Amino acid sequence: MTTMKQAAAEFLSAKRIAVTGVSRSPGEHGGNVVYRRLRELGYEVFAVNPNAEQVEGDRCYPDLASIPDGVEAVVIATRPETGEATMRECVGLGIRQVWMHRAFGAGSVSAAATEYGRRNGVTVIDGGCPLMFAPAADFGHRAMRLVLSSAGKVPKRV
């Protein structure tokens, strides 16, 4: 197994990242926060929500297969019960880096999605947030990483 720090660095080395579950009414929804921050950092980031045509002022895609030229990595920021379908789509498209977002509560983590992804060669980060790790980390997320790591919400190994 890979350490969380190594897995996060590999995930964040991707240049084209999709964020599923980005909300039409942004607020502080986890998917939208991740989407905005990655966009600000210069990543080529793609919003995915089958119920929206536009999110955060950008085009929104109904699914991963609709993104022109595909992506290298995916952040799942949906309800856990939709995570397995998203993971199956990732496997079908050959996407090998998936991060299931979780801060407080269950977040987007699905045991079935994690197991399916890993069984099919996907590096699955099942908890935490990409914004907790360099180069995407800000002070608030670094502090959250310490708290959530001690609470077992951020995996030590993936």
From TrEMBL:
Tell me which SMART domains the record gives. CoA_binding
InterPro entries for this protein: CoA-bd (IPR003781), NAD(P)-bd_dom_sf (IPR036291)
Give start-end ranges for the coiled-coil region(s): none
Q: Which Gene3D superfamilies match?
A: NAD(P)-binding Rossmann-like Domain (3.40.50.720)
Signal sequence interval, chain numbering:
none
Q: Where is the CoA-binding domain?
A: 11-105
Q: Pfam families recorded for this chain?
A: CoA_binding_2
Q: Which SUPFAM superfamilies match?
A: NAD(P)-binding Rossmann-fold domains
- Taxonomically, the superkingdom here is Bacteria
Designated name of the protein: CoA-binding protein
Biological classification of the source = Bacteria, Bacillati, Actinomycetota, Actinomycetes, Streptosporangiales
